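Duplicate of earlier report; Beta sliding clamp input re-posted below.
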Amino acid sequence: MKFSINRSSFLRTLNDVSRAISTKTTIPVLTDVKIAANASGLVLTGSDADISIEATIAEDDESNTLTITEPGAILLPARFFTEIVKRLPEDDMQLIVGDNLQAVITSGASEFTINGLDAASYPQLPEISGDNSLTLPADILHQIINQTVIAVSTQETRPLLTGVHITIDGSKLVAVATDSHRLAQRSLTLDGVDAHADFIIPGRSLTELSRMLADDVKSVDLRIAENQVLFQIGTTAFYSRLLDGNYPDTSRLIPTSSTTRIEFEAPALLAAINRASLLSHEGHNNVVRLKIEAAANTVTLFGNSPEIGNVEEKLSFAKLEGDDLEISFNPDYMKTALQGLGQSSIEVAFTAPLRPFTLVPSEDHENYIQLITPVRTY
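Output:
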């Protein structure tokens, strides 16, 4: 195999596929990156068995300055190879692989030789047909991921909760995640779509996918198989395994009524929670308390650490309706929820001191909801 290419273009694609490569894998070959040169261009592949990324650098794209002299394929140690490419001195680089599976990388006056492996030993990527596919706007997909993946569980004791449950029924898409202490659900109507799907995708996969959705990406093709999903982003294919099992019925967790409702500006409430958590983080339970006095039209936030001191802050709000209430909660859950809601005004709805409460954007309350379970303090 022999090719020359613009180093920046090559490194950009190499970094993309490296997102799927882990140094902790029990399969040694998966610490390598696969590089194949063929008639269509240069194909780079990385995988950790859960996530696989395959990216193509087209030879006919002049910005790549790619010239393939001899086709072929090789596996190279991803971490070392990436560091070498980063440090090459010139804008262009050349890679030559001989019969002995040694790769010679040259750029300017610099030359590296590293040992490779036979590409035939690399696992084959799954074949996913286009029979069950749809196209999503990239910005919408990015938003869905950011608004739901924040609530996935990090505990492997309940593997299904480490994923986001996505259902598509006709033109209605619903994505939901919960770790049993909090929940995030985003729904939307897809224009011109009539599809049916039900799958659970690991939160880690979606986090890596969202990092690849740059501003210049306009749309993403989604294809679903029995235990795999493929996201096609231009010339890059992102594969993820799916989690097997029946996701819990989360619809019954969301309250259908409330006794107290308050409308806040999300940034102002987030700033207040940040201040209160300065002390609560030093306490044993990491809890803040919210006291609502409807008759007096006041809402007060308390943070406390027996070792350090306490904080008390009167909160500003746009509207307050309902009964008096005192409730305690984990401020970190609240901060994450508010960050997901962005710059909007929000409505927080309560039913009882020990019942979950909800946060929704005031202007789009039907399509996005977050739920937080309070903390018992007595």
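The chain is about 20% helix and 40% strand.

Merging into the original ticket.
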